[in-house]
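Deliverable D4.2, example record:
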Amino acid sequence: MTKEAPAPPVLRVITPDTTPEEVAAVVAVLSALGGGEPPAPRPRREWGAPHRQVRRTLPHGPGGWAASALPR
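Output generated by the structure prediction step:
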């Protein structure tokens, strides 16, 4: 069984007089920036879609009015 090498640190503090509060502030800002998985795609809104504004042709002739309410 082989041992894996430890991963290099993601954040390295190079000044010796840095307080834990300052490190926490930097970590909070960097974590708020994100960088994880991409955002989920927004759902497509169909309510105002242009194809919903076009009416189909209504049937003509006897029974046309009653047939206009039937689903296609």
